[in-house]
Design a protein that fits this description.
Belongs to the methyltransferase superfamily. L-isoaspartyl/D-aspartyl protein methyltransferase family. This is Protein-L-isoaspartate O-methyltransferase. Its EC number is 2.1.1.77. By secondary structure, the chain is of the alpha+beta class. It folds into two domains: 232 residues, Rossmann fold (3-Layer(aba) Sandwich), CATH 3.40.50.150; 91 residues, Double Stranded RNA Binding Domain (2-Layer Sandwich), CATH 3.30.160. It is 28% helix and 26% strand. It has eleven helices and 19 strands. The strands form four sheets. The protein has a ten-stranded mixed beta sheet with strand order 7-6-5-8-9-10-11-17-18-19. β14 and β15 form a beta hairpin. α2 crosses α6 and α10 crosses α11. It starts with a helix and ends with a strand. It binds S-adenosylmethionine. S-adenosylmethionine binds next to β4, α6, β6 and β8.
Length: 393
């Protein structure tokens, strides 16, 4: 006989909490209690999966086997795609339920206390909002999503579970001025810079936790404290994380520049020692490079028909500069680079790689961010460090 999710989920939620504890992503008993008490399956009744041909299908709970697979997945440390815009080609991901381990890491880093208020940017399924409600009570929780369908669905599902946070449909870049101030703001989508309105909506002493991505893939989680009326400052989290970008409007694609037209002048060839997978693998090098490459860098690769492996990676910027880096290793152990246009893009990545090595390969925790109404600056080790990079947009 098939057992229902109602009979099974508490044990699965405890198993998930155990797994997150073992892997160092959950240590606070209050957040453990929330993970054990909130039925994620009620907030994620289905999810989408993409096959190797890029085709999306919804999880199927009609069969016993399908239900079992769905429930196991819900109570695993997995990110689950929950909303797609299917009238575009290819379909665009609009929302997901974040990896539970990333959520618990962020919730712990948020350092909330009884009686505090939290604004979440990116309601999505409402699961993170439910964890916050369990910890702080619904009256302390506010959440905004740019997709009205998502806030409505989350409102219904949360109410069914006895949670009644304030949910609003709108652009979270503006925060929620009508309900401010908040002791904490947590964004579960990435921003290209910190909206100053967020700083204004937390009191001095309050905190903001968000994913800063100054360009595609370039940046990570940063926790800022509002230190003086005109300043917020803090460090990046030691572990890399990536969220979908904040979208200016409902259903809109996020910031994902297309490969620009290539300027055919000044074409040059050389062999690089820097791995062409840097944009995906060597996140800090790519972050440092992005300060010079600019916010609208586009990355692309094409698959070989026979193996599906890409022969090369391409990067380009709107000024027509471009670089193509071969994936195969040359006889000398490097990778062939061809680049053209006004700027030498891969040289910028090589320079960033050299700097990272000279600085003793710092991890994210050595980087910090200072935000004022007029500018935002990333620094190494200390705000007054000689190594500082302005965030430009
Ligand atoms: C990773 S999902 C959020 C996951 C969510 N916290 C949960 O527990 O399911 C990111 C969300 O950010 C939302 N989003 C994107 N742009 C936004 C914006 N400008 N304002 C508010 N939400 C936005 C997306 O619609 C999406 O639901």
């Amino acid at each position: 006989m098939t057992r229902t999710p109602d009979a099974e989920w508490p044990a699965l939620a405890r198993r998930l909490a155990d797994e997150l504890e073992r892997s160092g992503k959950l240590s606070d008993p209050a957040w453990r209690a929330a993970v054990c008490a909130v039925p994620r399956h009620e907030l994620v009744p289905s999810y989408f999966q993409q096959d190797s041909a890029g085709v999306w299908t919804r999880s199927d709970t009609r069969t016993d086997e399908g239900r079992r697979e769905w429930l196991e997945k819900i109570y695993s440390n997995s990110v689950l795609i929950t909303a797609l815009r299917e009238d575009t080609q290819p379909p665009r991901v609009l929302s997901s339920s974040t990896q539970p381990g990333l959520m618990t890491r962020m919730l712990q880093a948020l350092d909330v206390h009884d009686g505090q208020t939290v604004l979440e940017i990116g309601t999505g399924t409402g699961y993170n909002a439910a964890l916050l409600c369990h910890r702080l009570g619904s009256a302390g929780v506010y959440s905004v999503d740019v997709e009205p369908d998502l806030t409505e669905t989350a409102r219904e599902r949360l109410r069914h579970l006895g949670f009644t946070p304030t949910l609003v449909a709108g652009d979270g870049a503006a925060g929620l001025p009508a309900h401010a101030p908040f002791d904490r703001i947590i964004a579960t989508c990435a921003v290209p810079e910190i909206p100053w309105t967020w700083v204004e909506q937390v009191p001095v002493g309050g905190a903001i936790l968000t994913d800063l991505k100054i360009a595609h893939n370039a940046g990570s989680l940063v926790r800022l404290t509002h230190t003086t009326p005109s300043r917020a400052e803090g460090r990046f989290d030691p572990t890399y994380a990536a969220f979908m970008g904040l979208r200016p409007q409902q259903g809109e694609p996020g910031r994902a520049p297309a490969l620009a037209d290539r300027d055919a002048t000044s074409v040059e060839h050389h062999v690089t020692k820097v791995d062409p997978q840097t944009p995906w693998n060597s996140m800090i090098v790519w972050f440092l490079a992005a300060f010079d490459l600019g916010p609208d860098i586009a990355i692309g690769f094409t698959g070989r028909a026979d193996t599906g492996q890409p022969p090369d990676v391409s990067v380009s910027t709107p000024d027509g500069s471009w670089a193509r880096i071969g994936m195969d290793t040359t006889d000398s152990g490097g990778h062939q680079v061809t680049q053209g246009g006004p700027r030498r893009l891969w040289q910028i990545v090589e320079t960033a790689n050299d700097l990272w090595n000279q600085l003793d390969r710092p991890g994210w925790e050595r980087f910090g961010l200072t935000v004022t109404p007029g500018d935002q600056t990333v620094w190494l080790d200390r705000p007054d460090s000689q190594h500082r990079w302005p965030v430009k947009h």
